[in-house]
Structure formats: structure tokens, C-alpha cells
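Our consortium's second objective concerns turning raw sequence data into structural hypotheses that experimental partners can test. To show how far this objective has progressed, the report includes one record in full. It was chosen at random from the queue rather than selected for favorable results. The single chain below, 384 residues long, was entered without modification.
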Amino acid sequence: MSDTSLFIKPGDNFLNQNKFTQISEIRNEGFNTLFRAKRYGKWWLIKALKKELQDDIMYQSFLQKEYDILVNLHHPYIVQVHSFENIEGIGKAIVMEWIDGISLSEWLTKTHSKSERRNIIRRVIDALKYIESVQTKHRDIKPSNIMVTNNGEHIKLIDFGLGDTDSYAILKQAVGSSGYMAPDGPSDIYSFGKLLETLNTGFFTKFVIKRCCVDKDKRFNSFTSVKRWLNFSWQLPEYIFISIFIIIISITFYITTIKSTYNQISPEIDSIEQTITQDKEELLKRKQRYNNIITNMCNDIDNIVIDSDIENKIDTMSNPIYINDTKILIYSYFNNELKYLPNDITIEEKQTIMIEVSTYIQEKYILRWIETITDKVLRENGIN
């Protein structure tokens, strides 16, 4: 029996095939209403303005702008737009592919492995890298604007209602969602950093997050850089970074402990240094003191020699016995002075005084007298 479904039948209306059927409202928030409808045997998502805003020129321009942005984006991880048309009972609307899945917000309510979370991030960053390459900004990156297919293999970036391109002049003011919007204005990189933080994909990822969410002048300047650093953080074993982190914490603790200990003993060190300085000054004073004693003794000995007129008596040899008398006088004075040294003079200092003064007497007087008398005797006896 032949199939007659392919032949034209009386009463067929081909115009009806272009109409949407089984239309149902699925969400009504912001300034948009979302519908699910069927046409050509497949499901579609219809995005239209709320009825009270359909005649507002500004909101019409928002909807038109979103369509103009999406129609030029062709990427497997970005929702695909089909048409912009006036639908009976709905008004002007964007018709786009129906995504069989759930939002990332809902996906995150269940437990997933780190590998699964990383796969989500890889796909999101590929999508963002693509729209960056065509000078487009999403400006509202957050979990509720990312769909995860039911098989978990793909994601779709949706809702470009706040999106922007270089060719549009509207919506240039700061926009976005609380918790994902940069303090310094719209930034997809900042919002991605917050998304990365939400998904918790690894220890070292924290450093990428920090670089995404810092001040604008220190932030990553492109998603190419973000992806490169993110891949680097995932390539190395995580335990290495945990070990490094522990080492850094240990070193910090050790340095803190050393500083604390130093602060505790610092007064004692200062006291010791002060004591050493005082002791050094005292030693210098004592040394100067016994040096003065030695000098005074030597001066007194010089005076004894001068008073005895021994120098002239040696030259004339009129009475050499005066040499012995002078020696006795010198050593008598010397011994007497040693007895009356100050009580605080130490034994070591006393020995030094004895040695210095004795050496002075021997070298300046005794040896010279002996040499003088010897030379005189030799000359008188004709011995040169």
C-alpha cells in the first residue's frame, strides 16, 4: 500500500505550518517573557517583551539589539538564534533553539566531580573567548545564564539581553548581576572569575580567580590569557601547590616566631650591649690611669737623676760611687711608690707598671751609664 501522506490533499493549509503550536509560558521576569512552542515538528524558545512594554521604543531596541548580536554569533556553546518575527498573540520576539537541559544554577545544586566542573569551565571560557574575538561582550555572566544539556556534555551561553558590541551605543552604563558585576563597570573577565570561584575547580585556581577579580589595571586583559593560566594551573598535580602553600605558611610562622622571640630578647640584647660599652669605657679609663702612673713615675725618676747631678759625675768620673747611690735612690723611690699604689689597682695592672718602669730605668739610665763608664775606661787605657 502506497504512502499518500506526501500528496496534496484538499483543505491542506501550508500557511498553518509556519504557525507555532503548543505555546506555553515558562518564565516571566525582568522585561521579558519566555515561551516554549512547537513548529516544524521541533521545540523552540520564544523571547518577547512583556505585554506592557511591547509598545515602548526603548525596550523594543533592547530586544532588537539582542537579536542582532546573536544572529552574528556562531559557536557550539552559544545559543543559536533562528529569527526575529511578529508572532500572533505574543508580539515581536526572538525565536531561538530550545535547549534540552537545566541552568548551571540548578546543576550546581547536585554533587559533581572536579573533572565535570572543569569541563563546564572549559566550555564557558571557549564561548567567552569566541565572543571576545568578535568584539562582543555578554555583560551578565552568571550560573543562571548558562545552560547545561541533560547529558552534561555541552553548555549553552544564553541571555544576551545586556550584551554589547562596538556597533551599539545603548546600555553603556554599568549593568550586571549582584555578586558577579565588577565594581569598576561591566567586565566579562571579572564575572568569569566569580563564576570560577563558585565552581571551585582546584586549589591553584584561586590565583587565577584573584587575577580576574583585582582592580581593572591589574586584571587579565583577555580570555586567551585567562585560558592559558587556567590550563597551567590544572596541568600540575594539586598536591605540589598544597605542599608549597604549607611551606609558605610554615616559613611565615617561623619568621613570625623569630620576630616575636627577637622582640622579647631585644631589651636584654640592648642591656648586654650597653654593659659591654660601659665595661669597654671603664677599661679604657683604667688603662689611661695606670699609663699616667707609669708616666709620673718615669718623670719622678728623671728628676731624681737630675737632682743627683749624676750625669756630670759620670762624665768626670770624679766619684763613680754616685752611680750606685743614684741607683739605690731610684729603686728606693720606685719600691716605695709601688707600695702606695691605689687599692683598686689589680695585680695585672701592678705587674704592667713594674715592667714598664723597670724597662724605662734599665734602658735610659743603667745600661747607658755602664756603656759610658766602659767607654771611658777603654779610652783611658788606649783601647779603641
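The partners drew two points from this record. The CA atoms of residues 176 and 343 lie 92 Å apart. The chain is about 55% helix and 15% strand. Both points have been shared with the crystallography group to help prioritize constructs.
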